[in-house]
Amino acid sequence: MSDPTRASHGRDIANRIADQLSECGVSLVASLPDNWVMDLIGHIAEDARFTHVPVNREESAIGLCAGAHMGGTGSAALMGASGFMTVVYAITKINYTYEIPLFLMMTLRGAPGDHHKHHISNGLYLRPVLESISMPYQVIDTIEDIGQISRAYRHTRTFSRPMAVLFTRDLLRGGGH
Fold it and tell me: What is the pTM of this model?
C-alpha cells in the first residue's frame, strides 16, 4: 500500500523541479529510470512544456543533450548516480573537448538517507569522480534548494561546461521514510 503523504510530497517536488527547468529554458529532458526520480520522470513526461525522451543508455542522454544544444534547444539529462559513473568518457570527450554545456540531474545515492546498502559505492565515489573531472555540482537537499536548479543550468551555458545537481533521498522521497 502506498503512502499518500509521500506520494503528495513527490508530486509537489516534481512540480517545483519542472517549474525551475521550464523557467531557465529547458524543453527537452532525457532520462533513465531510478526509483527516486520516478515521480519527476512521470511529471516531465506528462508536462506539455517538455519533450521527454526515455533512453536506454546514459551515453544516449549525453549525446542527445549535446545535439539539442547544437540545435539551440535547452536540455537536461536525468539519471541515477550509478548511471553517471558509466558516462565519464563521453562527457570528457564530447562536452569538455568541444565546450558543449551539459546539465545533469542525478540522485545522490549512497549518501545518508539512502536505505539500500548496494548503493554504498555511489556514496563513496560519486563526488570524488565529479571532482576528478573538475565538474561543479550542487546538492539539492531541501525545497528551498530547488531554486538553485536554474542557477546551475545558467552556469553551464555561461561557461560552456557540464554541471550537475544532486538530489537527495530526503528531498525526492521525503525525510524519515
Answer: 0.91
Q: Report the candidate in 98, 107, 48 with the shortest Cα–Cα distance to residue 77.
A: 107
List, edge to edge, every strand of the sheet that includes 74-79: 51-54, 26-31, 74-79, 102-107, 162-167, 137-140
What is the distance between the alpha carbons of residues 72 and 129, in angstroms, rounded to a whole number? 29
Spatial distance between the Cα atoms of 10 and 67, rounded to a whole number of angstroms: 30
- Distance linking the first and last C-alpha atoms of the chain: 14
How many other C-beta atoms lie within 10 A of the C-beta of residue 96? Answer: 16
Give me the domains of the chain, ranges plus CATH numbers. Answer: 4-173 (3.40.50.970)
Say how many C-beta atoms besides its own lie within 10 A of residue 58's C-beta: 22
Calculate what percentage of the chain has a pLDDT beyond 70. 87
**C-alpha cell recorded at residue 120:** 554504498
pLDDT digits (tens, 9 = 90+) for 34-59: 888 999 999 999 999 999 999 999 99
